[in-house]
Amino acid sequence: MFRLDGRTAVITGAGQNMGRGVAETLAAQGAHVLVNDIEPGRAEEVAAHIREAGQSAEALPFDVTDLAEVQAALSERSIDILVNNAGNGGAEAMRPRPFAETEPAEWSGAIAVNLGGVMHCTHTVLPGMIERGHGRIIGIVSGAGTQGVGIGVAAYSAGKGGAAGLLRSVALEVARTGVTLNSIALGLMDNTGGSDVTSKLARGIPTGRLGTPADVGARCTYLASDEASWMTAQTIPLAGGSITS
Asked: Which residue in 15, 38, 220, 224 has the fewest CB atoms around it within 10 Å?
């Protein structure tokens, strides 16, 4: 159950953190994983680690915000599973600031990666999936995009919310083709492996802990599997109870 043998999966932004966890989990379930990252070294390090574990992977670096790069990397490949994970602030770290104090030029990076990157990758692989009558497209979005957060990341929220809406609409357009599209709205995640700061954050979560890459990988495994063929056009919370709808 939930095996992915014979499937090829591309995970964007998989050179670290959540994307790495998803890549390692899908590979462990039998998928051939294409590890994408904007940094070639990070992509190759993760791919090598997966191969050392006896599974199948290769590095596939490109910038999701550059449509020409996306098409060059993916248009000639047979992709069964796409996990749109690349996000955050893009190539640069996010700098939280109240929206009223920002300038339009500051919005473009978050929108380009969190929405534009999802559009580029989805648009590139979707025709082949439709032609083959099978495909799984997953978006890693955020509670910041489905419920909003008052912490100075409005452009990020807009990008994530836009990606969730995009995938729901495309899912309904292609629902009878064998292709499904869903997204996962993440709550607070632990990208540090544990610290005093994350321990404090975890106190406000009903389950008492932050999310991990393994949590995200497990949910992606289900959505990527044949067993999830009747689930589409959904934005599913994964947040330890802190997002309930």
From this structure: 38
